[in-house]
Design a protein that fits this description.
By secondary structure, the chain is α/β, with parallel strands linked by helices. The protein is built from 14 helices and 7 strands. The chain has a domain of 157 residues.
Length: 352
């Protein structure tokens, strides 16, 4: 990324760029990037207005994060449970630059499996409720996933994801919670978040172990900023050791590879080559085809066939990683049948 080139872009081209950046939920982030590079004031009034409006909305959401985390802590106080805040909420609580201009769809927290039922019951008392979903989807969340169904606050409309692990239980690659014991720290406000190594680990696992890349560019930018903040050889040596313990070193290699290729992120060469040698026999042609497309800035209005094909392939790959083949076949068969019935008889056919 070269912020200084923004000055030479015409308003006509900016209209397309603004649409794409807004779709990727990074429009406000680019306000901060351009402002930090002392470029923002040199842009046209048209571009500045869009960037500034998005920045105002993002700042409001950031203030809401502090309010919501305080309310969540109060709701769980009687249980003596202090949840670990993840991703966007954690970036905000530690006031990391990666939180500047970041849009939030929901808040993520992590609790132990033993605490999960108590946490859910306490949140229900505090007016957090899940949307009505099918019995099958309830089973999916309760037995196979790494989280309970999303909760929505009845008054404020905030969405909350309560996790007991980083990856679905059914994948057989669940994170050993004891590994994370030394990677948790407390913020000045008394909230628990992950230390930088574990924060990056969670972010990249979430990205490369997922099937939905609607905001893949935003998530890759998160990693780019975090890697730039922690670019020493020692930090990356510790990061590789952590990923080995977690069993996700290949995902770290992928994050290195595509941050370097798409964003020119300064990854220590020794750390990158150590993983590149380890995975030299991996056939990366297909993964390069997928990730060089789904992790770039895109918009459905401008997406071409190669991007749509890559998105479909990434969707299939994500489900393949999360489920054993028999479970995946059953899941796909069930969902396809439901989709066809709703297509023929209408989406309300299963409503009570």
């Amino acid at each position: 990324m070269h912020p200084e080139t923004a000055i030479s872009i015409s308003d006509e081209k900016w209209s397309h760029i603004l649409l794409i950046l807004r779709h990727q939920q990074v429009l406000a982030r680019y306000y901060y990037i351009l402002n930090k590079a002392q470029v923002f004031e040199q842009l046209s009034p048209y571009v500045k207005r869009h960037l500034l409006n998005s920045k105002v909305l993002a700042d409001k959401q950031k203030r809401q994060i502090f309010f919501e985390t305080e309310q969540l802590s109060k709701a769980l106080y009687t249980l003596d449970i202090n949840p670990i805040f993840l991703k966007g909420a954690a970036y905000t609580l530690i006031n990391n630059f990666v939180s500047e201009g970041r849009k939030y769809s929901y808040i993520d927290i992590l609790v132990s499996e033993e605490q999960l039922n108590y946490v859910e019951q306490s949140l229900i008392i505090d007016n957090w409720f899940g949307e009505e979903i099918s019995a099958y989807d309830q089973h999916y969340y309760r037995k196979w996933a790494h989280e309970i169904p999303p909760l929505i606050h009845a008054e404020r409309g905030t969405t909350l994801d309560v996790h007991q692990n980083w990856v679905p239980v059914v994948s057989n690659r669940s994170i050993d919670p004891t590994v994370l014991n030394g990677y948790i720290e407390e913020t000045k406000g008394g909230y628990l978040v992950l230390k930088p190594e574990a924060m990056i680990a969670h972010s990249l696992i979430h990205l490369f172990f997922d099937e939905d890349f609607k905001h893949g560019y935003r998530d890759l930018l998160d990693l780019d900023i975090l890697f730039k903040q922690h670019c020493t050889a020692l930090f990356h040596q510790n990061l590789v050791e952590l990923m080995d313990k977690l069993g996700f070193s290949f995902e770290l290699f992928l994050s290195y590879r595509y941050c370097k290729q798409l964003l020119s992120t300064p990854i220590p060469e020794e750390a990158y080559q150590a993983l590149a040698v380890r995975y030299k026999n991996k056939k990366l042609i297909l993964l390069d085809y997928i990730f060089n497309r789904v992790l770039g800035p895109s918009h459905p209005k401008y997406d071409e066939k190669p991007i749509n094909l890559a998105l479909m392939m990434a969707f299939i790959r994500g489900h393949y990683l999360k489920m054993p083949i028999p479970t995946l076949m059953f899941h796909c068969s069930y969902k396809s049948t439901i989709y066809l019935i709703e297509l023929i008889f209408g989406k309300n056919v299963f409503l009570k």
